[in-house]
Specification:
Strands 2-1-17-16-14-3-12-13-15 form a 9-stranded mixed beta sheet. Strands 5-6-7-10-9-8 form a 6-stranded antiparallel β-barrel. A two-stranded parallel ribbon has the order 4-11. It contains 6 helices and 17 strands. It has 341 residues and is an alpha/beta fold.
């Protein structure tokens, strides 16, 4: 299967630069994965397509203010860090700009010295392993010094940093938001619960590996980067009980999908566990748990549209994307949503 099998031409003006004023007023495309039928709705209407006993699965990761700006201790040159993945308490895999000048042994100072970093090794695809030195709590220092790492295709500034967090975000650790969840409001979640629809939470700390472009012509040659996930006994039980009682299992976002499909056993049961997953889902994959997916509109030739195509079929997915473009849907992180069911 070729990367080019998942190409489509996206007009640049359809890339959403800012979030909708009201989260649940974004548009929603309903896609029947069996018939290919398409309906056009608003996101708040999603409750009409969920039934009592169904279960939606949300990724409650919280985005770190993971972009840091500092200076080299020896030269005073400007350096930008983007934290990708925590290796242990003080060591992180990090993208560094300018990368070619970031040598092992270099020391970088942030915020007048309240945070220092030393490059101690080389990571994958040009990343660096850095070790931080500080006093106090690292997350509090990040809150003070860091900025939100918006994707490169978003060129406008974000007035309210919380708009790049889901309303249910909880566990800090992501380099990017699980964007399908950005459409939910507290009121919509309340309506969902009142209708008898179950809500389960997982955590997958989104790394940039999820969004890295596929560089190989054959998609099977692409290597996914691993990301940390966890699901506890309570939430595993909610999903298993919903499935046992005949409810539909619907993941919100590709990250929730990858988590759930990573923790299911041979009998279709979800196990409470934590670890690292590099699962790559593409057409031909047989889903073991989920019945439906709520997701945004993704980049051409990305692993994300490949996952969507695995559930809905490549032809139906590309036709739906063509419909979205013809109807001026907004794409990517701050864009509109689709519900595949």
């Amino acid at each position: 299967m070729k990367k080019s099998d998942f190409y489509f031409n996206l007009p640049e003006d359809l890339i959403a630069q800012t979030p909708m004023k009201e989260r649940d007023q974004s548009r929603l495309m309903m896609l029947d994965k069996e018939s290919g039928e398409i309906k056009h709705k608003l996101f708040k209407d999603i409750i009409d397509y969920l039934e009592a006993g169904d279960c939606i699965i949300l990724n409650n990761t919280r985005v770190l203010p993971a972009r840091l700006f500092g200076i080299k201790e020896n030269t005073g040159g400007k350096v930008e860090f983007l934290l990708l993945k925590r290796i242990d308490n003080n060591q992180w895999e990090t993208l560094v700009k300018p990368g070619k000048k970031a040598k092992v042994g270099d020391c970088i100072v942030f915020g007048d010295g309240i945070l220092k970093a030393k490059i101690v090794g080389l990571g994958d695809e040009g990343s660096r392993i850095v070790e931080f030195e500080y006093e106090g709590i690292f997350e509090e220092i990040l809150d003070k010094l860091g900025t939100m790492p918006l994707p490169p295709y978003i060129t406008e500034s974000l007035d309210d940093q919380e708009r790049y967090q889901t309303v249910y975000s909880k566990n800090k650790g992501s380099a990017a938001a699980p964007t399908a969840g950005l459409h939910f409001t507290e009121d919509l979640l309340k309506q969902i619960r009142e209708k008898g629809i179950n809500i389960a939470f997982v955590t997958l700390h989104v790394g940039l590996g999820t969004f890295r472009p596929v560089k190989t012509d054959e998609i099977l040659d692409h290597k996914m980067h691993s990301e940390f996930y966890m699901i506890d006994e309570e939430n595993a039980g909610i999903i298993n009980e919903s499935k046992k009682n005949g409810g539909k299992i619907i993941t919100v976002g590709t990250t929730s999908t990858r988590t759930i499909e990573s923790v299911v056993d041979d009998h279709g049961m979800i196990k409470a566990k934590s670890g690292w997953t590099d699962i790559f889902i593409y057409p031909g994959y047989e889903f073991k748990v989920i019945d439906g997916l709520i997701t945004n509109f993704h980049l051409p030739e990305s692993t994300l549209i490949m996952l969507v195509s695995a559930l809905a079929g490549r032809e139906k997915t590309l036709f739906a994307y063509e419909e979205a473009i013809n109807n001026d849907y907004r794409f990517f992180s701050f864009g509109d949503a689709m519900f595949i069911i």
